[in-house]
Amino acid sequence: MIRARGLARTFTSRRGAVHAVQGVDLDVARGEVVGFLGPNGAGKTTTMRMLTTLLAPTAGEAQVVGCDLRTDPVGVRRRIGYVPQSGSSSPEARVGEELVDHAALYGIPKATGRTRGQELFSRLDLDGVWERTVRTLSGGQRRRLDIAKGLVHDPELVFLDEPTTGLDPQSRANLWTHISGLRDSHGTTVFLTTHYLDEADALCDRILVIDHGTIVAEGTPDQLKQRVSGDAVELELDDATRTGDALALVSALPGATDAVVDTSGATPRVRVRVPSGGRALPGLLRQLDAAGVALAAVDVQRPTLDDVFLEMTGRSLREGGEG
Ligand SMILES: Nc1ncnc2c1ncn2[C@@H]1O[C@H](COP(=O)(O)OP(=O)(O)OP(=O)(O)O)[C@@H](O)[C@H]1O
Q1: For the complex shown, is ipTM > 0.90?
Q2: Terminus of the chain with fewer CB atoms < 10 Å: N or C?
Q3: How many whole angstroms separate alpha carbon 232 and alpha carbon 253?
Q4: Does domain 230-302 have CATH number 3.30.230.10?
Q5: Ligand 1 pocket residue status of 8, Cβ below 6 Å
Q6: Nearest alpha carbon to residue 120 among 67, 69, 75, 83
Q7: How far is 244 from 209, CA to CA, in rounded Å?
Q8: Are strands 295-301 and 269-274 parallel, antiparallel or unpaired?
Q9: Predicted confidence (pLDDT) at residue 320 exceeds the cutoff of 60
């Protein structure tokens, strides 16, 4: 659905050149939900604005839904939906009219716009707001209206720029359900930018991490987490005299690193990092049992996307963003 090669954009201002995006390659397949993650100023919006034809690239090329960005921008625009960061609905407009007028921009007749709008409203849990003014909608409802506008011409690919910024946790979770539903029930491909790691983790099949205008990491949320340092496995032992035996066994696990004994708490603990806690654990438990090392508890902790981000970019996404 998207194939970009060497996409770049440099802005020239009085203070000099800003290399906002510096040669981005990316591929998005049909039906994927792809998250574009990065701190403030990383180049997310600039990339999205290029892919949606709103900004001309200084270098590089891209095909979006089969149309070339440079030679057929109108073809691209017809086939995509774009939901910008700050919604585009005017506060005094009637909700239903806003949608029908937006559909008209795509040449959709009023009657069809109304039917399609009402279908979308029921899919997005907006029943009953058709006659209201935009101003009276909650933040979450307004965001869903923006999304309905982005979908009214039935695009195969929709771009969402920070879809949940500014929403309360419940509205965010609710919107995630709707975004996943787009793909699950309609096969819509979704490309979204976000500051929120939990959002990318919950929603995206694949994540691209951008920093200083270049893509610094790419993969499924699980793959990215595995690239960091593996899972942390912690064994809590019944008997402090057996920590040496437990340490020897965990140290011998394939790919084991950072094996340590911690006797600072009430119960002795042995910790280790392994590529996959789930895979290592069954064999380890058998070996501990065979060696007669009794356990009080076992804990496996997976790294978070924030750990990934820190490792890739040297800074926490939370510091860089608002989320
Ligand atoms: N029109 C412009 N003129 C000059 N510099 C710009 C312009 N638009 C963006 N930039 C700069 O390009 C860089 C990338 O900006 P961009 O908005 O793409 O980042 P972003 O990752 O979307 O950030 P945010 O999360 O804050 O939206 C920033 O340094 C920004 O200041």
Answers
A1: yes
A2: C
A3: 13
A4: no
A5: no
A6: 83
A7: 41
A8: unpaired
A9: no
